[in-house]
Amino acid sequence: MKHRIVVLGAGYAGAYVAGTLARRLSAADAQITVVNAVPDFVQRLRLHQLAAGQEIAAPQLADVFAGTGIDVRVARVTAVDPVRRVVAVADANGGGDLAYDTLVYALGSRGDGRGVPGVAEHAFDVAARPSALRLRERLDGLEGRGGGSVVVVGDGLTGIETATEIAESRPDLSVSLVARGELGARLSAGARAHLRQVCGRLGVAVVEHTSAEGIEAARVVCADGTVLASDATVWTAGFAVDPIAAAGGLEVTGDGRIVVDRTMRSVSHPEVYAVGDSVHAVGDNGLPLPMSCASAGYTGRQAVEAIVGRLTSRKVANVKLEYPGNHISLGRRDAILQMVDDQALAKPKHMGGRKAARIKAGIVRMSLWATEHPTFGLPKRRHRLAAAPDAAPFAAPDAPAERAAA
Question: What is the pTM assigned to this prediction?
Answer without folding.
Answer: 0.91
